[in-house]
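During the second half of the funding period, the structural biology subgroup turned its attention to how the target accommodates small molecules. The most pressing case was BIS(adenosine)-5'-pentaphosphate, which had performed well in the primary screen but for which no bound structure existed. We therefore specified the complex as follows and requested a full 3D prediction, including the ligand pose.
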Amino acid sequence: MARFYVLLGPPGAGKGTQAKVIAEKYGLVHISSGDLFRENLKNETELGKLAQGYMARGELVPDDVTIAMVRDRISRPDCKKGALLDGFPRTPAQADALAAMLKEFDSKVELVPLIDVPAEELIERLSGRWTCRKEGHVFHQKFNPPQKAGICDIDGSELYQRDDDKRETVENRIKVYTAQTAPLIEYYSSRNLLVKIDGQKSIDEVTKDLLTAIEKA
Ligand code: AP5
């Protein structure tokens, strides 16, 4: 049966950083709803144009649009073995929609690791983040610097700072997380799927803890 995991956590908790490593280790597809929106933005699609304003303000893109986008991605053949979802679901309505779509594929969410990091640290992480243009690999000027400033260690592409990593936008993204996404902690706890991971440890230690949690599930 296909295996689906949901990485939950506030903006800047390290979901993208960890998802890349874990998906590769288990041969799973990494589906980041934020990356899908950014790809649409770059390609100037209708979906990208619709998402742009919400993303710039640090608000959530409406559920119906987001659910349709993720559904389309999960339906592709490369997800037959499963996927690691990063940034989706973000509301209880998205979580219900995910359960329903996985049921259609005779599958379900196996585990929801919550990467837990306090708000003060998130601002520092996001204001120092550098993202690669080609594949979205992430670095941090202090916590995970690239070998050569401005260049991705992995694929040599240019590193840039995301528009929504400005302080005011980050503050709003954290507020939106608390109001609209944090209820998923109870949603998945009550279904015995949630496992809390201390996201304040080093990147390698967090990876180790995530792998242990997945192996145990
Ligand atoms: P999205 O792209 O999903 O952003 P996010 O959830 O806010 O998460 P980030 O990508 O900012 O952080 P991350 O947890 O992946 O952290 P990272 O690994 O980069 O969404 C963007 C927007 O799209 C949303 O605001 C919304 O508008 C829209 N959207 C997306 N999905 C949606 C949905 N489902 N519904 C509606 N709207 C949606 O790490 C951050 C930094 O910290 C990096 O520099 C990294 O090097 C560093 N770092 C990582 N781990 C550690 C560590 N352990 N110690 C020290 N530094 C670390």
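Two results from this model are relevant to the next phase. The beta strands are 3-7, 29-32, 82-86, 109-116, 129-132, 138-140, 159-160, 194-198. The chain is about 50% helix and 15% strand.
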